[in-house]
Specification:
Elements (H helix, E strand, L loop, with lengths): L2 H6 L4 H20 L2 H22 L2 E11 L8 E11 L8 E4 L5 E3 L2 E3 L12 E11 L3 E5 L2 E6 L6 E6 L3 E5 L11 H16 L4 H5 E3 L11 H7 L3 E3 L8 E6 L18 H19 L3 E6 L14 H9 L27 E5 L4 H11 L5 E6 L5 H4 L5 E5 L5 H9 L5 E2 L2
Parallel strand pairs: 13-14, 13-15, 15-16, 16-17, 17-18
Antiparallel strand pairs: 1-2, 2-6, 3-5, 3-8, 4-6, 7-10, 8-9, 11-12
Helix pairs in contact: 2-3, 7-8
Length: 418
């Protein structure tokens, strides 16, 4: 029996047989004049009525709770969902069938059979606890539920489907792909060049000490400078700082399919670009860089992620679960206007490049310690991807980000995902 018919027809297979027997009993009893058969048919009808009344007294109790572990699964990653719901039944009921409604962004087997329910007359309240696994299919914020529970009477004649509780939102983050280490020279160049820029124009005293700030350790006090200036000074060379890096994801709609501006998951190329973005951020943070994530128009897309904080990097990735493409601005830049001043590593992720983009990229590539360009497109010409001074690679939608990263680190060009 199909699902639609099942929702309309309240009787089980056994109950359907009882209905047919009752109808046949009444018909034959009238034609053949057999009173015993009439009593039998009446008893079946009474039994069906009692079973239906008993199910009508079955009620949900309390809210439905769902615990998802981990709270934010990644695309392609798995999570365990534990659902708890209260049910009260006037009469003992057999095992209930349950089904938790899954959105298209999650896949899994969210249905099964729960334990039998005890009667509330005995003073107990039934609780259904079920567990199942889901896999993230598309990034975004998806809603699980409601929970549907189908119960039957003790005789298994009548069934009732109850929708319990509200939906529970689950955030599916873009997948973070492990990337190859940066070239050994890039980390040194990024840190050294940034330090030089920060100290440019400062006197010798400033290079040695700076004024005390709340939170500084007393062990770092520079006593000679303190006595000389008559104020607490701390040693500047012991200040802990991380070199800076920037990841640019070009969200201009002209570089992507129109679907990229709608719900996440519509444009495979943009989805691959988001995966490349969060993977680059996580990798640079792991390498010790404090990372800014910006749009090509200069908009900061997330709070800066401190170097070495892998947990915060994954939290930042979860913030990109709903990222979409935007309408182009007037400048149509592939990199922000301020990008030419960046000295640390810069990773630019974009779609199809235009001829005018090459000039902006070429100027920026001479300043950054490690300029990386990843072009996400189905087709791209060699000359359209290679830009002077950049480690560039072409990444086909839906293919391995790690391979494109390897190509960029090797300063070579290869078509990924052929």
């Amino acid at each position: 029996m199909s699902t639609g018919v099942t929702r309309l027809w309240p009787f089980t297979l056994r109950g359907t047989g009882a209905v047919l027997l009752a109808v046949a009993g009444f018909a034959i009893a009238q034609r053949a004049g057999i009173p015993e058969l009439l009593y039998f048919a009446t008893l079946l009808v009474a039994l069906l009525a009692v079973s239906a009344i008993a199910l009508l007294l079955t009620r949900g109790r309390g809210a439905v709770s769902r615990v998802v572990t981990p709270e934010t699964p990644e695309v392609g990653g798995s999570a365990t969902v534990v659902v708890r719901a209260g049910l009260s039944s006037a009469l003992p009921a057999g095992p209930a069938r349950w089904n938790d409604t899954l959105p298209t962004g999650l896949t899994g087997r969210a249905h099964g059979t729960s334990a039998s329910l005890a009667s509330t007359i005995s003073g107990t309240t039934g609780t259904i606890e079920v567990r199942y696994d889901v896999i993230g299919a598309a990034r975004g914020i998806h809603s699980i539920g409601p929970l549907e529970v189908t119960t039957t009477d003790p005789f298994g004649l009548v069934r009732r489907r109850i929708a319990l509780g509200r939906t529970t939102p689950v955030t599916v983050a873009p997948a973070i792909v492990d990337l190859a280490p940066l070239p050994s020279s890039s980390g040194e160049a990024g840190g050294t060049r940034q330090t030089a820029a920060l100290q440019l124009g400062q006197g010798a005293d400033n290079l040695v000490a700076r004024p005390y700030a709340p939170g500084d350790s007393m062990r770092r006090i520079h006593w000679r400078a303190t006595a000389h200036r008559d104020t607490l000074m701390v040693r500047q060379e012991e200040q802990e700082s991380s070199p800076a890096a920037t990841v640019v994801i070009d969200r201009a709609l002209s570089r992507w399919s129109p679907l990229a501006a709608h719900a996440p998951g519509g444009d495979p190329a943009f989805e691959t670009a988001v995966t490349a973005c969060v993977s680059a951020v996580a990798h640079l943070v792991h390498e010790g860089y404090t990372v800014d994530v910006v749009d090509s128009d200069g908009t900061l897309l997330a709070d800066p992620v401190e170097g070495g904080d892998d947990v915060e990097a994954r939290a930042a990735a979860a913030g990109f679960a709903s990222l979409r493409a935007r309408v182009d601005d007037a400048s149509h830049r592939v990199v922000p206007a301020t990008a030419s001043a960046l000295l640390g590593p810069v990773v630019v992720i974009t779609g199809d490049l235009q001829p005018e983009d090459r000039a902006a990229l070429g100027e920026m590539g001479t300043h950054s310690a490690l300029p990386v360009l990843i072009v996400v497109a189905e087709h791209a010409e060699l000359d359209a991807v290679r830009v002077a001074g950049w480690r560039a690679a072409h990444l086909r939608p839906g293919t391995d980000v790690a391979l494109a990263w390897d190509d960029a680190m090797e300063q070579g060009y290869a078509r990924v995902g052929r």
